[in-house]
Amino acid sequence: MRRPGEQTEAQFLAEYDPGKYERPSVTVDILVFTVAEEPADSYRRLPEKSLKLLMIKRGGHPFLGKWALPGGFVRMDEGLDEAAYRELREETNAKELYLEQLYTWGDVGRDPRTRVVSVSYLSLADSGGISLKAGDDSCDAGWFTVSCRLTGERKSITEDGYTLTRTHRLRLTNGQTALSAVVESERTLEGRRTSHRWEVRESEGIAFDHAKLIVCGLERLRGKLEYTDIAFHLMPERFTLTQLQQVYETILDRELLKANFRRKLADRVRETNEFTKDAGHRPSKLYRYHPGGDGTEPWGEGE
Amino acid sequence: MRRPGEQTEAQFLAEYDPGKYERPSVTVDILVFTVAEEPADSYRRLPEKSLKLLMIKRGGHPFLGKWALPGGFVRMDEGLDEAAYRELREETNAKELYLEQLYTWGDVGRDPRTRVVSVSYLSLADSGGISLKAGDDSCDAGWFTVSCRLTGERKSITEDGYTLTRTHRLRLTNGQTALSAVVESERTLEGRRTSHRWEVRESEGIAFDHAKLIVCGLERLRGKLEYTDIAFHLMPERFTLTQLQQVYETILDRELLKANFRRKLADRVRETNEFTKDAGHRPSKLYRYHPGGDGTEPWGEGE
DNA sequence: ATAATAGTGTCTTTCAGACAGTATAGT
DNA sequence: ACTATACTGTCTGAAAGACACTATTAT
What is the C-alpha separation between B170 and B224, in angstroms, rounded? Predict the structure, then answer.
């Protein structure tokens, strides 16, 4: 860096020694969500839906036997998105998944091995459900039903601002396996300075700090659901409007009024001539996604 | 990773060799925006405002003499946000800046020295303008007036989706120094798969791929302006509603109707007993930010 | 008085929310 | 006939957009 006038850029690059400084490792971690149908209670009732998240059982240290998000180290010759796609292909048989960068986590102590900076991604699979690759000798993958509830909210006003602390209880279940965690989100305003921190308070069965990546990603998924067309990545090619509404309701964890929902999504959807059949009630028209909608897919990356 | 049963986690960690794999470097790059007043034309007219961005002149290779975003390598013992704050303090005298993570850039060839993954941040300074540190021997910092215009938009419909290409012309000026770039954003939908790429087509005087970080960050700033209270970080402690409106207009690059603007922001603002004076016209009431507003600062990170 | 900005009132349109009603398959 | 879902019509109130109007200071 010093005495730059004495070197051309080409000389500088030729003599550059990348080994001079110690560096963090860089990984990608991917939140793969899907909405799946639970077995139906009765021949008439529509099946319930639930939100699922793909987790991988760790086959090595650290956190041996705990469950982690799919992901891994970024190689020197691949971009970040590329690495995320590669990791996805290593775990699943799906090729065409939605993928979007979420947030980058780089706290100092978050991996016991060494300093790790982790770029998290959001991925969505259609409710047909993608198939998982047969587990290698040392690892195992599974879809976990996600439930995340706000269990506490505390706002304390200080003289110069406030602190808003929200406590979330995350539960992941897959058959007899149950994982859980308590994650706190703390938003502070002090004068002009704001900060937002996520902290894992308890974590049972979930590796690393992945519980907070999950809770944070879930909030983002909910947010984006309301102002983008992201939901269609969770749908099969053809679907009924009720199915679409169920996907919204499942993720938002709240009921919506049918008439209003249909009005709002009418311009993002095109009807087909097909109908469902063999349900215990009136058949329902099938629709396809129609992207042109209103054109206002809002800006940028990351959101 | 192999034969995990033979080792405890403690043993594994003790023997872990972080030097085994080659790793990327990790940097932070910060977009520091502010809105500044241009010198007034007449004693009566209100001064015009313009959006400014902090840039640093490179004092070493690579890109010697070009202008880059403030930033630098993340140290092994500091978190990402911490690194961003440290870099900001190294360049400016401001302590209390708004800081928010934006996006992480990790294309393979983006730095000629070595593989660099760069976490970009958005920072806002109030229009009082923060003072810059005296330049070191080898570098120089300055506020550049930002202008970014959409110069082309092309949508091509394919059989299975579409491609939307938008071309932006970015101009940065500071006195006689003028930098410019052409940045393309390409959004593709093919069946279920979507992708979004940013590409720098031309870049005059701007180091690395920073032109695209700037254009992408600017889009995010515009987006967030409309649905968060982010704008108040650009305001001094007390301000008039017209000043606040000017900040919105400057960033959005479009005029707003006064009555509607005031109605919309009424609940985020508290009046004081003070007024401006010595303007060539009716004095204006001064306001303060009132956070409680509607409480709906929407979710998560990044976003 | 005048120029320039400060600030208010109100009309219209759009849209979200709520809810009541009709339609139609399968058993 | 009955059940469960499919689908539509319409009322209300809130908010966005547009615009016209009044108020107040320094020169």
Answer: 20
Q: How many residues are recorded in chain A?
A: 303
- Residue B298's pLDDT is 47
The answer to whether the CB atoms of A198 and B301 lie below 8 A apart is: yes
Q: φ, ψ for residue B275 (rounded to 5)?
A: -135, 155
Residue B19 CA neighbour count, 13 Å, CB half: 5
Report the protein residue whose CA lies nearest the C1' of nucleotide D9: A259
Q: Please provide the size of chain B in residues.
A: 303
Highest mean pLDDT among B4-18, B135-149, B205-219: B205-219
Least confident of A10-24, A237-251, A270-284: A10-24
Cα torsion through B253, B258, B264, B269, rounded to 10: 100
Q: Identify, with chain letter, the residue nearest to nucleotide D10 (CA–C1').
A: A259
Distance CA A141, CA B21 (A): 26
B129 forms bridges with which residues in the sheet?
none
CA atom of A256 to C1′ atom of C17, Å: 10
Structural tokens at position A288:
């396809």
Chain B interface mutation, best of A2, A31, A58, A61, highest count of B Cβ atoms under 10 Å: A61
Q: Which residue has the higher pLDDT, B61 or A25?
A: A25
CB A148 within 8 A of CB A133: no
**Inter-chain CB proximity B300 and A7 less than 8 Å:** no
Q: How far is B149 from chain A (nearest CA, A)?
A: 14
This prediction's pTM: 0.93
Q: Which residues touch strand C (CB under 7 A)?
A: A 43, 257-260, 263-264, 277-283; B 42, 44-46, 240-242, 258-259, 262, 275-276, 279-285
Query: Smallest CA–CA separation between B175 and chain A, in Å?
Result: 25
Q: Is residue B206 a contact partner of residue B68, using CB atoms and an 8 Å limit?
A: yes
Distance CA A242 to C1' D7 in A:
11
**Cα(A298)–Cα(B89) distance, rounded to whole angstroms?**
33
Tell me the β-bridge partners of B50.
B36
How far apart CA B142 and CA B174 sit, in angstroms, is 7
CA distance A156 to chain B (A): 12
Structure tokens given for B296: 């709906």
Exposed e or buried b for every residue in B195-211, given b needs 16+ CB within 10 A?
Answer: ebebebeebebbbbbbb
Q: Which amino acid is at B248?
A: Y
- B5 confidence band (pLDDT: 50, 70, 90): low
Bases of chain D within 7 A of a CB of the protein: 3-10, 16-20, 23-27
Q: Please tell me what DSSP assigns to residue A231.
A: G
Phi, psi of A159 (to 5 degrees): -65, -25
Model pLDDT for residues B68-92, shown as the tens digit of each residue: 999 999 999 999 999 999 999 998 8
- In single-letter form, the type of residue at position A258 comes to K
CA of A266 vs C1' of C19, distance in Å? 20
Kindly report, residue by residue over B158-200, the tens digit of the pLDDT: 888 889 999 999 999 999 999 999 999 999 988 778 899 999 9
Helix, strand, coil percentages (3-state) for chain A, rounded to 5, are 20, 40, 40
Report pLDDT digits (tens) over A217-227.
Answer: 999 999 999 99
